[in-house]
Design brief:
Layout: H1 2-21, E1 29-33, E2 36-42, E3 48-55, E4 60-67, E5 73-80, E6 83-84, E7 86-91, E8 95-102, E9 105-115, E10 118-121
Antiparallel strand pairs: 1-2, 2-3, 3-4, 4-5, 5-6, 5-7, 7-8, 8-9, 9-10
């Protein structure tokens, strides 16, 4: 289970890094607002891939949202000056997974699967 979440985290960070290197007609935007840098990263098709903010010393901070190429939310994450905090939510159209972090470590995981138009807990 830990390997699964490590893989999800690495994919999330990889997508963030790749999103910053994309050369598309729609350019990623980084705008400083006070002591934060607001970031919007785009897929090749022009739709938003991720949005969130950084601290001035380049640490992820606050709420980050990831989207698939069709614009559907795939993940909602929380950071505090680079540390994973709070409850992260992952969606794939079939399952919803909530991962709660404490001290940047996984403290709790809940998973739900969509079955016949109902959400069923699967712990």
């Amino acid at each position: 289970m830990k390997a699964f979440f490590l893989m999800i985290g690495l994919l999330f960070m990889h997508q963030l890094a790749v999103g910053q290197q994309m050369t598309t007609e729609v350019k990623d935007t980084f705008i400083q607002e006070g002591d934060k840098i607001i970031a919007v990263l785009y897929h090749d098709n022009g739709k938003i891939a991720q949005q969130g903010q950084y601290t001035l010393d380049n640490k992820l901070d606050g709420k980050w949202v990831s989207y698939d190429v069709d614009g559907q939310i795939t993940a909602i994450a929380q950071y505090d000056k680079g540390e994973k905090v709070g409850t992260w939510v992952f969606f794939d159209g079939i399952t919803k997974r909530e991962v709660t972090y404490k001290d940047s470590r996984i403290a709790k995981v809940n998973t739900w699967e969509m079955k016949a138009s109902r959400v069923v807990s699967n712990r």
